[in-house]
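Hi X.,

You mentioned you wanted examples for the new student's onboarding notes, showing what a folding record looks like when two proteins sit in one file. Here is a clean example. The first protein comes first, with its sequence line followed by its structure tokens.
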Amino acid sequence: MRWLTGPVLASLIVTTGYAAAPTPDVQDAAGQLETFGARLEGVGFSGALLVAKDGRILLSKAYGYADRARGIRNTVDTVFPVGSITKQFTAAGILALEQRGALSTGDPITKYFRDVPPDKVGITIHHLLTHSSGLVGSLGGDKEPIGWDDFFKLVMKSKLLWPPGTKYEYSNVGFSVLAGIIEHVSGQPWERFLRENLFLPAGMQQTGCVLPKFAPDMVPHGYQDDDDVGTFIADYGPEGPYWHLRGNGGINSTIGDMYRWHQALLGDTVLSAESRRKAFTPYVREGDDADSFYGYGWALFKSPRGTNIVTHNGGNGIFTAEMIRFVDEGVVVYGAANDSAFAAWEQTPRLAALLFGGTVEVPPAVVALPGPALEELVGHYTVPSGSGFDLQKHGGGLLALPDGQEAVNALAAVRPQSQARYATVAANTQTLLERIVAGRTSTADGDSAWDVSEEMYRREQARRQRLESDLGRLKAAHVLGTLPAPEGRGRVIARLDFAKGSRYLRCLWGPGGRLWHIRELGQPVGVQLFSESPTVLFSYTPSSGGIRRVEIVRRVDGRVEALALQTPSGPVRATRMSPKPSSGSSGSGESERKP
């Protein structure tokens, strides 16, 4: 399970701007939090949120659907995956064993395992807990069925990134090895040990992998581009997650249980004062220039007010979760989500900002417009740069399908620092797709500006051959724009034009110009527009928390003439060119896609 690094999280918290203002009355804050959560649900958030201060719960609500097909809503009893927040549970399990005298965090792994090669004999439990072991980040997929023996052999055969204790590198592998140590020392499966020694003493009845025997309606489905990807626990084995995930991820919990865990960490319920001190000590800086440090399963840094923050988050790009503990101020914020469009860690800093008196753009209340009012807005619009977008009906609102980055930037609240990078990944995607159209058999050309694996390139060539068998020759590929995505990553939408029709792709680029994956879409994704009033539409961009308002401009006869997109640099006029979507759109007139 990946997670959002400390420096990026610190940036999100700082940019919410709550350092200068005094803490508001908690009753006022509770009202603001309730409003924010309800407004988030109005623009598509699906998950659960919790905020508490000094033992008083200010917000504990669930939003959206656990299963859209069956109409089952999320509730406060829904068990969301916590992702890499699992790591601090594993770390707490190690500390619980240390309290018993069963091990020491200074022990080398050779005390517990045989056949450790010379380059790894210096690895200690402390190194594993602080991501300073030198082990790689991962050695396989989360769902891959692999037992302990085969996993351990892979770890021992892997090449260390550097000698143990010399540098930080986030490692899921290291925390899986810690789970192996827990099983070796305790004689129990990892989950059972955590349940009996951490969860149940803390009153956490609905936390775990398979032992709580969750009722089916308590387990949410995940959604990506409106596709139902199923539940997170569907690929567990009889004892829960397999070893590429065990220990570093895989735990599920309710927002109530996660609050109980926060409370347990305030006293001696599960860990002694000495164990808690060790867990929250900032041992290793998370990168050479990072302001954050890593303790035992927790990221640690200072708030803008100079107070201590203890936090972690995690997710797989669809399910996301984050816990932020302002330990000096008696505050905990927790969020979990089951839709890729809204990462939980993008909203939790905004909840904290509202509590601490900061500035947060709260989405307007959505006003339902009648069908004819929506229908008259459908059509193709162009902006002065020549870029444009098709506007289609989307449920009770509208979806803008952009063709050009200028249209994306005007429709969505794209951070200025992201716009240049988005242009780069769009250009890289266009080059990649043109090579596929031209029949190039390899990406290798010495170009260091991007990172596309040969395996991924071969998959895309296979996709082309499969689609050509149904749609005829691939004639051209066209990048429509880069949409905002969680963590500021580039989400490039492209159209492949075949002799008999078109197909759409979403290309997700990560840090360092690396292409993470390409997903085929039945229809393009775009920017969803909601109605604030009969004359004003708006978009909400989850990654930036920004709002773009769109004013409807009418002629004297009342017909829609244009849309005035309100951007930070001034209004951008999008002139209506035709009353129906252009031929480059999906052509359905309806769409079930989200931004």
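Then the second protein repeats the pattern, sequence line and then tokens:
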Amino acid sequence: MVRSANPDSSDVMPMTEDQAIQQAMQYHRMGRLSEAEAIYRKILQRIPNHPDALRLLGMVAMQTGHVDAAIDLLSRAIKAKPDLAETYASLGNVLAMKGRLDDAIIAYQKAVQLKPDYFEVCNNLGNASKIAGRPEEAIAWYQRAVEIKPDFADAHANLGHSFLEKGQIDRSIAASRRAIECKPNSTEGYNNLGNGLAQKGKLDEAIVAYRRAILFAPNFFQAHNNLGNALKDKGQLGEAVAAFERAIQLQPDSAEARTNLGNTLMQKGQVDQAVMIYQRAMELKPQSADMQSNLLFALIHHPDRTVESLLAAHLEWAGRYAGPLAGEVAPHGNDPSPTRRLRIGYVSPDFYRHSVGFFFMPLLENHDRSNFEIFCYANVRNPDAVTEKVKLNCDVWRNIVAMSDESVAKQIRDDGVDILVDLSGHTSNNRLLVFARKPAPVQVTYLGYANTTGMTAIDYRLTDSLADPPGMTEMLHTEQLWRLPTCAWCYQPPADAPEIRPREAGPIIFGCFNAFPKLTPKMLDLWAKLMARVPDSRLVLKSSGGGDPSSQKSLRGRFAEHGIAGERIEMVGWIENPKKHLDYYHQIDIALDTYPYHGTTTTCEALWMGVPVVSLMGQTHISRVGVSLLTNAGLPELVAASPDEYVNIAAALAGDSTRLAELRMGLRERMRTGPLLDGKRFTSEIESAFRQMWIIWCERQATMLPK
């Protein structure tokens, strides 16, 4: 018997242990933990190994944050009564809180052994397995939970999240919808549904799903953050900024939300503000290499950054994140035969309908498979028809989305890759820390990033002598510049590109379809000067930020300062349909390249659509891409050496209607028969470069052999 004082009464009543347990449990359920604890302890004073009192007191300890005490109490409860599944389940929860995931999984598994229909614990097993980095086991446990209880909404929602992380988007959407069917106010279900729909490109539906999640949980940080991303991708940048700012209010220490806000500001062309946001994100999460990569990407767009400061920033990134991994590099066992068939590996998150694909596919499709075996390591979050095309045109396809950098590096070593090529640099979802581990003897960066990686683990950077003239830019790179003999780019135009038709008569229309971060104040001032030279001319600016009202107001205001009326400036947002996007070039007479960061895809698209491009050359790679593209398109006269010459060239071209008409109807054929579309020549030159790089490595190996 125990005596328990009811805090609401002065009476003292003797109770049996069972009655005392029931009284304590009632207090426990009401949240009156101190009163429940007092009774549990009284019982244990009388019966030190009372299993229920030990278990329930352990739960009180867990609820009040005394994790070590909870583990001790629950372990004692198991010794006292080793066949109670609930005690193992509670111990698993506490061990998971402590971060002892392997021990938690063992406890949960024991609970399920004792109680096979314990669906809540199956779900907990899934959670612990996922956090422990065992995604397949997690999915299996979630599936077992919903097999036991088909209407278990939480497990369906967790399945939705796990399938999403595995890149199984359709299964994720189906699981999330099932969670919502089981629980119409399932915030996790709606959030995961939004994520799946967003990855499918169904942004309107995703936005609705996120808003439903927020309706049921107004302070749901992830839903606000994800809503911001969907709005950003939709081009609704002002609303996206508001969503991210709300997310930051909810979690002021979230580096993720600040990074997303920075990405949105970049899309709006507000580079200065984006840089400050990225820097704050890095302060919050200094261990994140990806966040500092975002900063580097912003800095190369900044017109006032010196080349020396940009190099220093890239070296800082490499020293902080890549350098410490150098100690993990082991000798390579690749056969150092200079003439054997080589294994080439390409690593990219952009094997989908992305700018990189327009320049990678000619290389992939023309590789000499008798001399080169092609591996593609795809970090693709949103696969599409282009993804399937890449998959069909390589020898070995590896999906690395859910793999750690260490695991990817091991896979590449196991595959025996000889030359590994980075196609992304410091852009989104890069895997540069795979390269930091030097999984291949020769490593190259190419195509995706217009600057150095800053890494000594990457040996070469592919370019050409027009984009990087000898003696001009070597000192700005940690990689050795390897100049291809003709051009560093080969363009594959979309098969469904519209046929070119003559421009209707009317005022000259200049156009720039480059991303807004490339539209620097000095460039806008130069365009205003050009428009003043060409009366009645108009300017079309098309970008993902073009549909944002605040961006439109800011840009028109800049032109107004130079006396250019706002109605002469047209701004167009993202056009999802690629054919309609290209069709917009029919409204443009002359495309204006940006400076210092030139366009690449936009330049090739304009030329393919019969629109000549005027470019201003500089002294760095990003300001010389247009030099290479226009020269190889047979239009070197459209490259200016100074801002005044840029205006003069564009104005003269605007006044020559005959030449404009000839270029419009003749540029496509000129490109078709020129080096910019010669995939066989281009691939042969790259393969020759790879072979020479390999020979150099083999010769170095020979000098290292013991004598």
